[in-house]
Amino acid sequence: MSVPGVKRLRLHKTLGKQIEALHRVRQPQARLQADPIEMPRRYRDPLDIEVVGLLSATLAYGRVGLFKPVVEKILSLCGGSPFRYVATFDAKRERPRFKGLYYRFNRSEDFVSFLDRMGQVIRQHDSLGRCFLSHYREADEDIGPALSGFIAALHAARPDALSRGLAYMLPSPEAGSACKRLNLYLRWMIRPDDGIDFGFWKAIPSSKLIIPLDTHVIRIAAYLGLSRRKSPDWKMAKEITEALKRFDPADPVKYDFALCHLGISGDCPLQADPEKCEACLLREGCRRGRRALRRIAS
Q: In 3D, which of 261, 17, 252, 281 has the Cα closest to residue 142?
């Protein structure tokens, strides 16, 4: 069942070909250095990648250069195997090693509680992936219910209440959150390995994914007419995903990396730049781009 309003969206007739072309050219490995997936990409063992991926994704708010040092510090504490470290995590023993570590909304105790919760889930299910898959149902319209169950399992892993910072790391679709960083993690784990994503959780089709709703995707989606919604919530993420399914029903979220990095790279700046709009592959399907081209022509 589609999100109300999606079928009424009128997309530019050439947008499908343009966004597919952007996807094909926006895959260079050099861009991975400016993406949080660079950190799990350092590892080979899928179990390590699941753990590092969840840690990297949940802290991926703000610029990569700001949160990356925090992830690096935690990884340095993990030793050679982040999975083994988390699976045997002892909060009392490890807490002093996290003293003074913080990042914006998150303090040291948030990191300790987060890793402890992951460890509890791993000990119960053997891996993060198995925990997530235990909540997935083929009949579900999208990944939302499974994600809600996965987050509920992490919440329930410790009896203490979630702090404000930890709640920010572990939002749920049930509360209406867009769950941008968690949807990013799911994209990494579920989409086929294309040099960017990993494709470990093969039991879940890519068609069930929801696009990670970061600030760049929100802005560019508005230019392209992919959503009319104003609030950056789960409903907006679903609406954009449903619109992208018109171009690739089986794998709509494959366009996320290209759209996001169009903003990150500065090729689509906040202030319209006619020269950049003229060079953009999406210019004909982009409302702002078409206005910029008309100004050049006049």
A: 252
Q: Is the pTM of this model over 0.70?
A: yes
Which residues contact residue 125 at a Cβ distance below 8 angstroms, ignoring those fewer than 6 apart?
131, 134
What is the average per-residue pLDDT within 151-170?
A: 94
Average of per-residue pLDDT across 131-150 = 98
Nearest alpha carbon to residue 38 among 25, 57, 66: 57
Residues 6 or more apart from 21 whose CB is under 8 A from it?
A: 281
User: Tens digit of pLDDT for each residue in 199-216?
Assistant: 999 999 999 999 999 999
Nearby residues of 28 by Cβ (< 8 Å), 6 or more positions away: none
Question: Residues in the chain, how many?
Answer: 298
Alpha-carbon torsion (95, 49, 232, 143), positive or negative: negative
CB atoms closer than 10 angstroms to residue 138: 8
Tokens standing for residue 104: 């914006």
